[in-house]
Design a protein that fits this description.
Order of helices and strands: HEEEHEHEHEHEHEHEHHHEEEEEEHHHEE
Strand content: 15-25%
Shape: globular
Number of domains: 2
CATH topology of the largest domain: Dihydrodipicolinate Reductase, domain 2
Number of helices: 13
Largest sheet: 9 strands, mixed
Structural class: alpha/beta
Length: 461
């Protein structure tokens, strides 16, 4: 393979049609070529896309393997890693990295902003590279369905990084429910205190909507950072962390934390997809930017012998109304409650944050001393990255938050994000993958992409 400069690479890809992104020299990312999943010989050769922030929290669990490449469109965000590992190859465009190094990469950890999860993940899978992807898994529902198809087709090991799903706690919760400890659950309540708007935090309000444009700093490859999103000027109100606030790049508080807080009920109750999501409250009204606070109500039809259920999500400091039978003076700042007709279960914002059945203390001690039989395999270290690496090496089971599961969890959450974004009620037909009462919103089920960033179309042929 002939080496080429990044400038030449970007120029060449810009000449391609919007329907197919060609990585020069070896593969069309919309071809039907099916590679063999990579089998590591010794240590897993890991590439990292998104090096700072959550990326660092993820790839530091790979240090016993062989990290072969770093890729980040924001060199300042990645500078701590670059200083610590000066000899690891660096890229700003993952397409160039895969073009030059695909033969030397077994697996990739992807911790970029939400809107670039999908193209990076698809590019890797189409090369037989195993993928670990931060939550939420993708930015729209079509991408999720395509990732599920791709995981089956390419046979790679997949994992979404919602850490609580690798813990014993979420397995306990499902076993408690399956054993009948809660009875039937028809109501779920969840709440989270954010967003907190702070220029030093993850959310910050801009000077305008859209924000005033400015020249991108030298340490940012703005074209690579934008990826498939529509072209626009750089803004300090996007980078390095504030992108989460913008629906074009992130998925708001619900997308950020729903994959944690709603994981236990989705897993335990086999919730599947809602057929309706109501935006009961949203302030202020802005389809570009996440709300200060909101209340959403998901409606789930009956599933087999499980009854219909509702799930109400609160954010921005709003909490459900406290109930005397819960025996609490006040609800904590964030958490989840599954209301059963026998008993009620509570967790914190993650399923492994103090999961317990609400009952008298002595009764709870007896329950814990003689819990229901374990039916779900445990992960000894309760670490999602290690769970994924062990599966790649053949020394552990298929990861629990693999794409067969995590695409569905994320799809449920993105239904809520659409209702929240447009401050409306949506009626969702899972089979046709369409919003039936607001057909104009179906353009957000599969969003348009910039030329040169289209992936996965071949799987729908």
């Amino acid at each position: 393979m002939k080496k080429q400069t990044r400038r030449a690479f970007v120029r060449n890809t810009a000449l391609l049609s919007a329907g197919a992104m060609i990585i020069p020299g070896f593969i069309s990312c919309n071809s039907n070529k099916k590679p063999t999943p990579k089998k590591p010989n010794g240590k897993v050769k890991v590439a990292v896309i998104g090096v700072g922030g959550r990326g660092m929290a993820n790839w530091t669990h790979c240090l016993k393997e062989n990290i072969v490449a770093f890729c980040d469109a924001d060199a300042k965000r990645a500078e701590k890693a670059y200083e610590k590992f000066p000899n690891i190859k660096r890229y700003t465009d993952f397409r160039v990295m895969f073009d030059e190094m695909h033969q030397d990469i077994d697996a990739v950890v992807i911790s970029t902003p939400d809107h670039t999860h999908f193209p990076a993940t698809m590019a890797a899978m189409q090369l037989g590279i195993h993928v670990y992807v931060e939550k939420p898994l993708a930015h729209n529902i079509w991408q999720l369905r395509t990732l599920r198809k791709a995981a089956k087709y390419y046979g790679v090991v997949t994992q979404m990084g919602n850490q609580g799903h690798a813990t014993n706690a979420i397995r306990d919760i499902k076993e408690w429910y399956d054993a009948g400890a809660l009875g039937e659950v028809r109501e779920i309540l969840a709440w989270f205190p954010g967003p907190h708007f702070n220029p030093k935090g993850y959310f910050c309000k801009p000077d305008a909507y859209p924000p005033s444009g400015e020249k991108a700093p030298d340490f940012v490859d703005w074209n690579s950072w934008l990826g498939p999103a529509a072209d626009r000027p750089f803004s300090k109100y996007y980078l390095p962390r504030f992108w989460r606030s913008w629906f074009d790049f992130g998925t708001g508080m619900l997308g950020d934390w729903g994959c944690h807080t709603l994981d236990a009920p989705f897993f335990s109750l086999d919730l599947g997809m809602p057929n309706k999501v109501e935006c009961i409250q949203r302030t202020p009204e802005n389809t570009q930017f996440l709300p200060d606070s909101s209340i959403l109500k998901f409606h789930f039809p009956a599933r087999g012998n499980k009854p219909a259920a509702t799930l109400t999500w609160h954010d921005g400091g709003i909490k459900p109304e406290n109930r005397p039978e819960w025996g609490m003076n006040s609800l904590p700042s964030g958490g989840m409650i599954m209301v059963g007709d026998k008993r009620t279960l509570q967790t914190g914002p993650r399923p492994n944050n103090n999961p317990h059945i609400i009952m008298p203390e002595e009764e709870w001690k007896k329950f814990k001393a003689n819990p229901p039989k374990q039916t779900i395999r445990r992960i000894p270290e309760e670490n999602p990255v290690k769970e994924w690496l062990d599966a790649i090496k053949g020394t552990g089971p298929i990861p629990g938050s693999n794409f067969e599961y995590s695409t569905r969890l994320t799809e449920m959450i993105l239904c809520g994000v659409l209702a929240q974004r447009f401050n409306t009620t949506i009626e969702y037909d899972e089979k046709s993958m369409k919003i039936t009462n607001h057909p104009e919103l179906n353009s957000y089920i599969k969003e348009p992409v910039r030329e040169g960033w289209s992936y996965g179309e071949n799987l729908w042929g």
